[in-house]
């Protein structure tokens, strides 16, 4: 078996170099050399006129794979830890050099706006962990691409983590957003990679365009839609576009079958819950499903964020509402929701009015009204432009509201 013998003089190398007026590196400087030999006990590196460097095995305790990648003849950089050991070698650190070089590379990658492909090595509830040149970086939830962003119901942390687990070991394309070597902080973004492409795509759209897309996720606050290519149509003359949405369990279009999803662009929009329909909606999932094809109107563009509306493609039921329900109209209404401000009551399938809390004669609305109850109301105020309609309880319902429900307490005294 071939062995490598490292010879050195009994005379101090430092003294020899000083006599030769050689400019000595200082501790902490980066030096370059060529690997002479690699073993479990040490790694020897030829530093030329500066002698022989040695790297001890402690350098690799937390990164065993690094030592396996080193071979004789390989040129390498290292940090000088000690100018001369007791054996006359220059003690070096590859790990420190790697970090120093990595941070330098990170700065250049950020300055150049370079796109980096790297695997996700770990996850936490706030996002994912990646590694660039041995430096761990944080990929926040907000910086994930729309494809990988966890569209989780109610923002449930457990479900978010479960979703992110699927991304572990997956390669992602990222850009460096921010870094701080002293604080060992590195923030990256997957979303930023697609921003330039998305911005170019968004330039094709304008507020008022009618677009088609595929619903990619439904949450408590609305639905995300990936827009299909070549769909922006300029709405003209109030023509009503073909309505393919048909909200409602019995009418909605069936989701596309897996494997037959239409082509989509990098542009994604959001249909907020308030823009699904003119009537009050409590859960978007009752009307929209993942994979469903929809047609919507662009109502806002803010940077890379597009807001969409389904109800904008339908006739506004509030137009002429002051004629349909003029002030003073008395009718029956069904309570749909109760909160601290009062109770919402549906006059028909599309129009809902507010019964203010003051109508409940000193009681909390929740103690006097319940969703599903039918009550007698009178219209006291109508504002078609603001879509507001105020109701008052009939005298009969007001009297019921203050009367005791049973005769167990004839004096109407509180227990």
Automatic annotation (TrEMBL):
Residues 28-95, 113-191, 208-311, 328-394 form the S1 motif domain. It comes from the Bacteria. Pfam families: S1. Keywords: Ribonucleoprotein, Ribosomal protein. Residues 232-249, 390-403 have a biased composition (Basic and acidic residues). PROSITE patterns: S1 (PS50126). Residues 250-260 have a biased composition (Acidic residues). InterPro entries: NA-bd_OB-fold, Ribosomal_protein_S1, Ribosomal_protein_S1-like, S1_domain. Residues 226-262, 390-415 are annotated as: Disordered. One of its GO terms (cellular component) is ribosome. One of its GO terms (molecular function) is nucleic acid binding. Gene3D superfamilies: Nucleic acid-binding proteins. This is 30S ribosomal protein S1. It comes from Candidatus Yanofskybacteria bacterium CG10_big_fil_rev_8_21_14_0_10_36_16.
